[in-house]
Amino acid sequence: MSSVPELSVVIPVLNEEENVLPLIDRVRAALGVATEWELVLVNDGSTDRTAELVANSAAEDPRIRLVTLARRYGQSTAMQAGFDHARGRILVTMDGDLQNDPLDIPVLVAELEKGWDLVAGYRERRQDLLVRRKIPSWIANRIIAGITGVKIRDNGCSLKAYRRELLERVHLYSDMHRFIPALAAGMAGARISEMPVRHHPRIAGESKYGLSRVGKVLVDLLTVKMIRSFRMNPARLFGGGALAAALIGVVTAGLALRAYGAFDAEIAGSVIFAGVTLLWFSLGVFLFMLGLVAQVAVSTKQRAGRDPGPLLHEVHT
After folding, report:
1. Cα(221)–Cα(233) distance, rounded to whole angstroms?
2. Could you give the CA distance from residue 87 to residue 64 in angstroms, rounded to a whole number?
């Protein structure tokens, strides 16, 4: 394909040899020839014939592209690799297990064209197990909304549409793909819409999701909260920590003075309080200096032009 497509569909795949060819066929049928599009399938370390089948399809159809990672990195990293190689003005992500329906892609794109930066699908009549998938997802969505302040009904639904300019301001790692709306709203001020999408039961292959990811998701959620709050001003975070350490140091200094006044200076308690006071003040100084270094790093990155800058909605000339 020589021309730049209007739409890029990015799908990470891991051991989906039974699903990947029907998936390609359904994307072709859903998008047809009305729009210039490409399908970027990112092989995340599959050990079956997934990559071989995609490569064969890519050889016959230039709209199909295969990106193969060196090993299994995880869905977020695979999705980021797809973003890095996609060329469309509009990007759509979805799962490779046929539970998302490609027929929803044109609907999401039409909604995005109304002026939104991100359109998030939410699964109506979700076809997953109640205890292992639906209930944990319901709880997770409410925790994410409470901590980030971004109320998305179904953060776990991969079927979403984005403007390229938005994704250039978001970098995914770990399991961050679940938090793209929160990152987009916090880092770029993105305008977000939601739409119901179809959801089908998995017919072939094995699910890659489970309760084992809960701990990792909670850590990522804390990271997202930190990014949203302190990304552009890390000195506030470290300065707050330095102030707290200094206040605790003041308290232990008071206890040390009281110990010296009330007891013999040679007793163990007075020595311990003085030592603890020194540690807390040292920690305060360390955090303060760390905050200065982080703030200088942010400013240097902005001056060097490595920060993509604000997401623009309108420019009047």
Report:
1. 19
2. 12
Task: Say how far apart CA 201 and CA 99 lie, in whole Å.
Answer: 6
CB atoms within 10 A of CB 132: 13
> Tell me, what DSSP letter sits at residue 130?
I
Phi and psi for 126 in degrees, rounded to 5?
Answer: -60, 135
- Reduce the DSSP state of residue 118 to 3 states and report it: strand
Give residue-wise pLDDT tens across range 92-142: 999 999 999 999 999 999 999 999 999 999 998 888 777 777 788 888 888
Helices (H), 86-134: 105-112
Do residues 114 and 143 make contact, with C-beta atoms less than 8 angstroms apart?
A: no
CB 121 within 8 A of CB 188: no
The string of DSSP letters for 24-66 reads: HHHHHHHHTTTS-EEEEEEE-S-SSSHHHHHHHHHHH-TTEEE
Lowest mean pLDDT among 20-29, 110-119, 169-178, 261-270: 261-270
Q: Where are the beta strands (DSSP E) in the chain?
A: 7-13, 37-43, 64-68, 90-93, 118-123, 160-163, 192-197
Segment 36-79, tens digit of pLDDT: 999 999 999 999 999 999 999 999 999 999 999 999 999 899 99
Torsion angle defined by CA atoms of residues 166, 169, 173 and 176, in that order, rounded to the nearest 10 degrees: -50
